[in-house]
Amino acid sequence: MERYSRDDIFDIISEISRIDRSEITPEVLIREELGIDSLQAMAIVARLEKRFSIRLDESKLFEVATVGDFVRLLQEKLG
Amino acid sequence: MSGRIAFINPKGQQTTDPEFARILGTMINSKSYRQAYSGFGLSLLILAALTPEDWDRELIDENYQRIDFDRPFGLVAVTANTQQATRAYQIGEEFGRRGVPTVLGGIHATVLPEEAGEHFQSVAVGEAESVWPRILKDWEHGDLKPFYRPEAPADLSASPPPRYELLDRERYNTIWVQATRGCPYDCSFCVASKIFGRRYQVRPIEQVLRDIERVKALWKSPNISFADDNLFVRRQYARDLIRELKGLNIRYLVQSDISIAEDDELLKSLQESNCGMIFIGFESVSAEALKGINKKRTKYQYLARYSSLIQKIQTMGIGVYGAFIIGFDQDTPETIERLGDFIASNHLYASQITILTPYPGSRVREALAAEGRLLARDWSHYNCTEVTFVPRQLTPDQLQQAYNRLHQRVYGPEQLKRSSRYFIDIFKRLG
């Protein structure tokens, strides 16, 4: 498992959603504000799993509301 | 002469069945499910655009706003599909009692104009572009007629850009854009062919792109949904349009039939232009039910390949939003169970399961009426989640129960978890 930084996660979210990196902040709502749909959220999880060689609990995906929740999802796994 | 005009979308209820309402409330993804239904239709935005600038326009969506019946409107225009008709009629009568001129248009008024005329001063039949200018002109002369029927089919290329700016940007994020109108397939349960004929019209691509640019200017991250019943009937037009979408940096949904999966070039183009989802009407996994849907048997001929074609689309990272109907004469508890198996085993990204609904103007309604199988229920029950006829091989209650159980299964946490893992693994393979 690799160490991660918040910037890594923000970069991935920006790339998948095609939203400018400057708009990605922890408190921003991924669906309502960034317009990220659940399929894109799955693509983000896939990228995180690949990048950090982990497997996330897919059922937690439905609890992700903000960009910060993605960070917490990874924190729970990587510590 | 001008005045204040209200464009009203009456309240619509997803269901009046308490058990189904409870199931919807417990779904993990109930929020996104609701949002998928929450976009604002284009018709009132087009009417607003067809209205001269000196009118004061108010857009009222009764799903979110209360109607002030005492507000001094010079004219009230209401649109309604069948499910909204009961409420639309109440609105028409309420304004009528206050002496406000009222007009009802939309699908329901088009197929049942005489009924609509009992509740509204005027009824607009057919496409708005064809009749709205005449209505406004007659209003100016205080001479509204009971019925307005198109003298000629509307020219889609002459349709003005919808007035998207009238929408509340905080409330709506699913925005509809239209590229084509009409459907040549004439399915037994659908009234699209009745409204538009089998004529299929396309808008000039530059007009569609202009609308999208307008939406992008108004919303930061809109989910754009193409309102077309089937965007891909004229394949070359669709190819040209999708190619142009590549540079726009949008996320969007299209509606098609399953034949799109055979077009590798187009699929690649959809993937490259960031299409998130293709809404496809599969209707049934029963061969016998599909045979009866339309004369050309367009759905039936693909049944054996449904699974492989779904897989082909979804492994490109594009979700298939499958539409299915239960309650056909051929449906039994076993076929409904089999549909649940099909949705699960094919890992459909999303499913829209509806109960066969005998809409006025449809061939299904004519057949059921001839056999005395229509239930006496008011239009508010025509919401595709409730039984409004006597099924052939089940009782109405059995069909409702089967529908509710199917929903619980398809949108249950286990199924959603499996489907999510399926897509996560696809995206890992795609890189």
For the biggest sheet of chain B, the summary is: 6 strands, parallel
The assigned structural class of chain A equals mainly alpha
* Oligomeric description of these chains: heterodimer
Mean pLDDT of chain A: 89
C-alpha-based Rg of chain B, rounded? 22 Å
Q: Could you list the spans of chain B in which at least 5 consecutive residues all have pLDDT below 50? A: none
CATH topology of chain A: Non-ribosomal Peptide Synthetase Peptidyl Carrier Protein, Chain A
Q: Trace the largest sheet of chain B across and list its strands.
A: 2-1-3-4-5-6
The termini of chain B sit apart by: 61 Å
Structure at a glance:
The complex is a heterodimer of chains A (79) and B (431). With 79 residues, chain A is mainly alpha-helical.
Task: Describe, in plain words, how this protein is organized in 3D.
The complex is a heterodimer of chains A (79) and B (431). Chain A has 3 helices and no strands. Chain A is mostly helical and 79 residues long. Chain A has a single domain (6-78), classed as ACP-like (Non-ribosomal Peptide Synthetase Peptidyl Carrier Protein, Chain A), CATH 1.10.1200.10. Chain A starts with 5 loop residues before the first helix and ends with a helix. In chain B, α10 (235-245) runs parallel beside α11 and α14 packs parallel to α16. Chain B contains 17 helices and 14 strands. Chain B has helices at 18-26, 30-36, 43-50, 85-97, 107-111, 113-117, 128-140, 192-196, 205-218, 235-245, 264-272, 287-291, 306-314, 333-345, 363-370, 396-410, 413-430, and strands at residues 4-9, 56-61, 75-79, 102-105, 122-124, 147-148, 174-177, 180-181, 201-202, 223-226, 251-256, 275-283, 319-326, 350-355. Chain A binds chain B through residues 17-19, 31-40, 42-43, 45-47, 49-50, 58-59, 61-62, and chain B through 28-29, 32, 35, 173, 220-223, 249, 251, 274, 276-277, 317, 319, 349, 413, 416-417, 420-421, 423-428, 431.
